[in-house]
Specification:
Blueprint lengths: L3 E6 L4 E4 H7 L6 E5 L1 H25 L10 H20 L2 H10 L1 H6 L12 H13 L4
Helix pairs in contact: 2-3
Length: 139
Amino acid sequence: MLKKSYYVSVGSGTIEDAQTLADLGNYSYEYAVEATDQELRELRRLMSSYEVETEKTFARAGVPYKSADHDEATDEYNSQVRELYAMIYRLGTPETRGHIEKMRIMEKLSNSDYRQPGYGKHNAEEAIEVNEREQVGPK
């Protein structure tokens, strides 16, 4: 199948072809990809799913007593971001692939900070103990 060039902006949730890019004039994009019609449909589906998960995590963020630790919304969001960037990487131009590699986004999304204080079995107690130890200086 014939591949065409498309320009992806994850931040604004858009995927545009070269003609639309020329018509818009000031459209900015983060990634250039080469995709068949079928690959474009899949990329649009992933972008749409990513936007839904972004809205879910935003809605959840306003709940002050609910921790994001191991939260389903956060896990789903991370999963969608990984899938989206994996496809952008796979379809991407050499420049796009290089940029994604340089950002190390796939690595960052795959490795959480759950080894930091406060993520153990006794989350709050562990974080408080570490904080108290750090505040106690030399005598």
